[in-house]
Amino acid sequence: MDQEPEWDMRTGAGGEVILAAEGSWTVGAVADLDRRIVRTHLNGATQAKIDVSGLTRLDTAGAWLLYRTRRDLSADGVSVTLSGLDAQYAPLLDLVEQADLEHPEIDREQSNALVLLIGRVGKSVCDAGEEAVSLLNFLGLTIVTMFRVITRPRRMRIISLVNQIEQTGLNAMWIVGLLLFMIGVVLAFQSAEQLRKFAAEILTADGLAILVLREIGVLIAAILIAGRSGSAFTAEIGMMKVNEEIDALQTTGVDPVEVLVLPRINALILTLPLLAFFANVAALAGGTIMSVATLDVTYTQFVRQLADAMTLKNFLVGMVKAPVFAFLIGLVGCYEGLQVGGSAESIGRLTTKSVVESIVLVILADATFSIVFAFLGI
């Protein structure tokens, strides 16, 4: 049975301070021994001897504790000698000392919270800059490949294009229609509540038509497609990357951008304008039903007022944004899919990143359109 570990301080015959280490100094006892060592005070002594003749067992943890104690006392100006060390433990202490000299402890200063915050912000900015440059390079590659395919129509993947149109367009109609219908209901209700204060409830139709046609219809449809189809692009291409299918395509001389990226981007460019039109119809229908049900106007009056506000200019302002939004969503979704590494964790992380980047770019593009249209007086 192991002897209980001990750490004791006593005074020798010549007044020398003796630190006695006895018993079993193993990993299970170092926590208690460390507390005892910390509470040991030499009371100004400049010389001390660590007597380890009473050790019955010593492992790496105990050897480190002995070495650290001797090192710290020496650093405080105390002359320390080690006596009574069993020959079998000497190599272990030498290894611990050598490891400490090769890998010294680093005294890390406590950084200021503001400095840490600035550091994180700076790193995020640098990462965003690198991401922007990489995405811009991928944009150039996609445009070059697109022009190459246009000049050689036989290289177009018609079957893939039709399949992607079904996945991104037809299958997304129900969620786009349902959500925009409910948004139209909310817009009409909230607008009517505010306009009722001025006895101008009939103008709800004008606000609804302008807001839906110019902004809400295409923007909400694009955000939905970014979350639904953009993430699907990243996951699909990412899984192909993990399974090394893209490497197989490159080995056989097939361009992954031409086969995987262009059909998805072209499908979105074709379907998002149609979805935006469908979204406009659904939102206006929801707003009309809510207005007729809650306002003191007839269906004919509201529809006539709505038709007057639904000008071709307002309609085109919204529709011209759709292909741009579609291109951005498809570009980001495919780019992040091609960045996937060799793990499933990478797919999930980059899929989330793809959705966030797509929505941010869509909103930035929408803001840019608004500024340009305002400058041009449209």
Describe the 3D structure:
With 378 residues, this protein is of the alpha/beta class. The protein has two domains: 6-102, STAS domain (Transcription Regulator spoIIAA); 151-376, no CATH class. The protein has helices at residues 30-38, 60-75, 90-102, 113-151, 158-168, 173-195, 204-242, 245-251, 256-294, 299-309, 312-319, 321-338, 344-376; strands at 6-11, 17-25, 47-58, 79-83. Helix 7 runs antiparallel to helix 13. The chain is elongated.
Q: What does this entry show, briefly?
A:
By secondary structure, the protein is an alpha/beta fold.
Main sheet: strands, sense, barrel:
4 strands, mixed
N- to C-terminal distance: 92 Å
Strand tally is 4
Helix content: over 70%
Tally of distinct domains: 2
Q: Helix and strand string, N-terminal first?
A: EEHEHEHHHHHHHHHHH
Gyration radius over CA: 36 Å
- What is the residue-averaged pLDDT? 85
How many helices? The count is 13
What would you call the shape?
A: elongated
Main sheet: which strands, in order across? 1-2-3-4
Strand content: 5-15%
Describe the protein's topology:
Blueprint: E1 6-11, E2 17-25, H1 30-38, E3 47-58, H2 60-75, E4 79-83, H3 90-102, H4 113-151, H5 158-168, H6 173-195, H7 204-242, H8 245-251, H9 256-294, H10 299-309, H11 312-319, H12 321-338, H13 344-376
Parallel strand pairs: 2-3, 3-4
Antiparallel strand pairs: 1-2
What attributes does this structure have?
single chain, alpha/beta, 70% helix, 4 strands, 4-stranded mixed sheet, 378 residues
